[in-house]
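Researcher: Can you fold this with magnesium ion in place?
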Amino acid sequence: MEGRSKPGPWPGAVGEGAVIETAALTKRYRGGQLAVDRLDLVVPRGSVFGFLGPNGSGKTTTIRMLMGLIEPTSGAARVLGQEMPRAGRRVLPRVGALIEGPALYGFLSGRDNLLRFDAADPTAAPRTRAARVGAALERVGLTSAAGKKARAYSLGMKQRLGLAAALLRPRELLVLDEPTNGLDPQGMREIRALVRGLAAEGTTVFLSSHLLDEIEQVCTHAAVMAQGRLLTQGTVRELAASARARLAVTTPDTADAVRVLKEHGVHDLTVTDDRVTGELPPVDLADLNAALVRADVRVRSFGTERASLEDAFVALTGEGFDVAG
Ligand SMILES: Nc1ncnc2c1ncn2[C@@H]1O[C@H](COP(=O)(O)OP(=O)(O)O)[C@@H](O)[C@H]1O
Ligand SMILES: [Mg+2]
């Protein structure tokens, strides 16, 4: 009865090599809130997959369905090739998860918290427990603070302790819900470095975030959510490339520059300090540069700026990304 799960509602071999795959996954909470709306997600094995969306867009709800913590209203989810939540007991030991802050005992030290976690795992041999806990503490940089009570930990240290708990066993997949939420820049850098290291060892990492630049910095792939719906998914490079690059001119003579660029068919001009940017026009940029110089615009720099994931997001939704939210 172990065997393979039923084929499920997926067309053909679309999800070959996918560690997470959902088909029309939907969650409507009691009370009527449609939190996740017919989500089709494909997370390739070996990726660092960023699940990006503003607060309230359905990220945590999706993750809770993937981990079998709540039942979908309709649709299906497969994790490591098996149907969730049905196959949870087989799948979850192969998945490390950190969801909405770890559950820690404040009165226990960091090390004792991990010893407890490890003891709760019936497949973890007691003889090697201390070594496993020591290695996990080392991994997240908590060795020297291991004897401190968890309630004395900073938010970043608590988050790292939660990660250590997820890393007690080797995992094929790590699912991290907003792992850098509430951390200072140094704490964020540490988590990012950890994620990169795990990915380099072959662990697939699925992490949610409402921060675009974070996704750009660590992820190979991303999916963008808004109001429970998937807007797009793909490699970060593809997503950024889908937003057109812009022309950028640095000059002390911004007003003249705007006039000349406008005359040469550059649309959507914006000025920030000494920088003028606009849509790339269908003319030779050399001619455009010459025109600026002819009009006595003093040009400090002239070129195209790479489109970012943020540009792609703005293009998709027609609005900016609320990073403060
Ligand atoms: N237990 C719940 N009961 C009812 N509504 C909920 C519950 N949890 C979340 N929601 C609602 O579902 C939507 C998605 O929430 P959530 O999945 O937490 O988004 P995110 O993690 O992207 O911030 C929000 O509108 C939220 O208010
Ligand atoms: Mg959330």
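Model: Folded with magnesium ion in place. The CA atoms of residues 66 and 174 lie 12 Å apart.
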